[in-house]
Amino acid sequence: xxxxxxxxxxxxxxxxxxxxxxxxxxxxxxxxxxxxxxxxxxxxxxxxxxxxxxxxxxxxxxxxxxxxxxxxxxxxxxxxxxxxxxxxxxxxxxxxxxxxxxxxxxxxxxxxxxxxxxxxxxxxxxxxxxxxxxxxxxxxxxxxxxxxxxxxxxxxxxxxxxxxxxxxxxxxxxxxxxxxxxxxxxxxxxxxxxxxxxxxxxxxxxxxxxxxxxxxxxxxxxxxxxxxxxxxxxxxxxxxxxxxxxxxxxxxxxxxxxxxxxxxxxxxxxxxxxxxxxxxxxxxxxxxxxxxxxxxxxxxxxxxxxxxxxxxxxxxxxxxxxxxxxxxxxxxxxxxxxxxxxxxxxxxxxxxxxxxxxxxxxxxxxxxxxxxxxxxxxxxxxxxxxxxxxxxxxxxxxxxxxxxxxxxxxxx
Length: 412
Description:
- The structure is a single chain.
- The chain folds into three domains: 2-36, no CATH class; 63-78 and 101-157, no CATH class; 178-402, no CATH class.
- It is built from twelve helices and ten strands.
- It is mainly alpha-helical.
- Helix content is 50%, strand content 7%.
- The model is unreliable at 97-111, 151-160 and 296-300 (pLDDT under 50).
- The protein has helices spanning 81-94, 141-149, 166-171, 178-191, 193-211, 217-240, 258-293, 305-328, 332-338, 343-356, 358-374, 383-402, and strands at residues 2-4, 11-13, 25-27, 34-36, 64-65, 72-73, 113-115, 122-124, 128-131, 134-137.
- A two-stranded antiparallel sheet has the order 1-2. A two-stranded antiparallel ribbon has the order 3-4. A two-stranded antiparallel ribbon has the order 5-6.
């Protein structure tokens, strides 16, 4: 410390460590006068050491749905592994590279295949793990186990669980892969040939017999088309997902969703008939007008060229309108029976989703129609294979487009 004598004003430095213990005054070395020493400053006290707790282990990143397919994103990427790989393949194809699609693994004794509940890829069932009604590939098993632990999906169910609502589904796009649909459909039919052909044949025969009942066939066509078609769709959807489908599933349209399926089929048929009626009304009126102008009402009189042209024009318009509606409402019945969508919202949802790829969906139906018709050249017996193949391909496409849609609460 620095001290100053109050008598003579001399100053100097005093080392605290050399200050005598208990000394309160000091004699000035210059004037020999005594003066008091300033008190010692208290020693600095070190702050107490507070133990720092060890850092907590980092929590795993929350699972996020893939915006493209609704699957689970692992890590910090923007897409799931399957969609990221698909995008890379598309990029490579755009650059001129040829990247073959991943082959379906051999199935050994179990030649059937199924769709993974997480990545949506198709694998042999012998190389997948079953969780209740779900099949999960080996790569997705850890993710699916984590999903189960977090309560994201259930252990059992109808296999139609999804994470997207209708708005989220409509916000995303998709592609129509005709070759992939046919390939997946063939794998399903080939792996379960007996049950697929048998269930399809029984359902179609029951529907045809009901429509041929005298006086009641028209009513059966109006009121039973929806339940019969819904059941067939339900059977093929379950088989496409790798679930255990039985012959009873092919008649599943006569269960809890009967009323909604009946209304869907009835409204669809009435609209189709109405479209054709509207198309033929101008033709009938034009023929009648031509008869008045010619002052003859004889139906045996040959129509003029103008009548024929006008008639063909309106018939083509009616046929085009029916084709557009048929393709747009392609997924009406599966949405009702699989996703519990009421019949009228199902009309709208199917139309809005198909509108994104209407021409490619139309091409898909044309190709599958040709595939189904090819069976007629094999003494009709081939239809037992090609017709189920076409339906299985449609079910595979439906699963890609609507598989991630969250089912609506069950209503009557």
